[in-house]
C-alpha cells in the first residue's frame, strides 16, 4: 500500500466539498486560521514576559564546522 496519487486526493477533495459545501469549509478555515494566529500571539507574549535571565542557555561547541551541544558539569572534590 503506497501513498495516494494526486487523483485520489482530488476525488477526496470533491467529495468533501459536496458533503460540507464551500461556505462551511471557508468558515472552518477562517476559524482554524484565527486559532493559529491567536496561539502564535500568545506564544510571543509569553516569551516577551520572561526576563532574559530566566531563559536558560545551553553552551555549544564548534567541532569540524558542526555545532554540538555540550553539558557542563562541575567536579566535586572527594
TrEMBL record:
What keywords would UniProt list here?
A: Cell inner membrane, Cell membrane, Membrane, Protein transport, Translocation, Transmembrane, Transmembrane helix, Transport
The main location is: membrane
Keyword Transmembrane helix on this protein?
yes
User: What Gene3D superfamilies does the record tag this protein with?
Assistant: 1.20.5.3310
Q: Where is this region: Disordered?
A: 45-78
- Show the InterPro entries listed in the entry: TatA/B/E, TatA/E
Transmembrane spans: 6-22
**One BP term from GO:** protein transport by the Tat complex
Its function, per the record, reads: Part of the twin-arginine translocation (Tat) system that transports large folded proteins containing a characteristic twin-arginine motif in their signal peptide across membranes. TatA could form the protein-conducting channel of the Tat system.
Assembly, in brief, is: The Tat system comprises two distinct complexes: a TatABC complex, containing multiple copies of TatA, TatB and TatC subunits, and a separate TatA complex, containing only TatA subunits. Substrates initially bind to the TatABC complex, which probably triggers association of the separate TatA complex to form the active translocon.
| Annotated PANTHER family | SEC-INDEPENDENT PROTEIN TRANSLOCASE PROTEIN TATA
Q: Name the chain's protein.
A: Sec-independent protein translocase protein TatA
Please give the organism.
Dechloromonas denitrificans
Amino acid at each position: 500500500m503506497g501513498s495516494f496519487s494526486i487523483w485520489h486526493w482530488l476525488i477526496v477533495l470533491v467529495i468533501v466539498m459536496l458533503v460540507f459545501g464551500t461556505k462551511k469549509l471557508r468558515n472552518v478555515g477562517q476559524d482554524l486560521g484565527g486559532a493559529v494566529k491567536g496561539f502564535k500571539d500568545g506564544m510571543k507574549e509569553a516569551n516577551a514576559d520572561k526576563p532574559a535571565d530566566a531563559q536558560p542557555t545551553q553552551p555549544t561547541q564548534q567541532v569540524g564546522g558542526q555545532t554540538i551541544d555540550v553539558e557542563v558539569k562541575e567536579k566535586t572534590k572527594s
